[in-house]
Hints:
Layout: E1 2-5, E2 10-14, H1 23-36, E3 45-49, H2 60-65, E4 70-75, E5 80-88, E6 92-103, E7 106-117, E8 121-126
Parallel strand pairs: 2-3
Antiparallel strand pairs: 1-2, 4-5, 4-8, 5-6, 6-7
Amino acid sequence: MDITISVSNDIAIYVDDMNGITIDECRRISQAIEECLDREKEDFSLEVSSPGLTNPFRVKEQYLKNIGKLVEIVYVDGEKIIATLKAVSDNTITVETATPKKEGNKKVVVTEIFDIERINIKTVKSVIDFK
């Protein structure tokens, strides 16, 4: 779960789990939170949703659900790579890249598996592949 609250009291809560999240589950969470807040004391807006397919990962469950899938990683310095997410830990992610190279008259794909420290990552998001 990830929660953001703006200075104008716009509350956004993103929830996810390994099986995804339904609209009914979002509604139940929203109602439970609204019961704890008092609109008479403070005006606010409340949005409860899943993080979305095209948005950067915000919760750990998104990383876990995408193990074995292609992701776009943007480093803090702006460099981008597309890789297959292999593993996730608290401090690193493990990815595999596949780079086509030409050796003589043949084309070969060179794969590399490596860890990236999460402090060096700006964003990670799913790559939607229509193949």
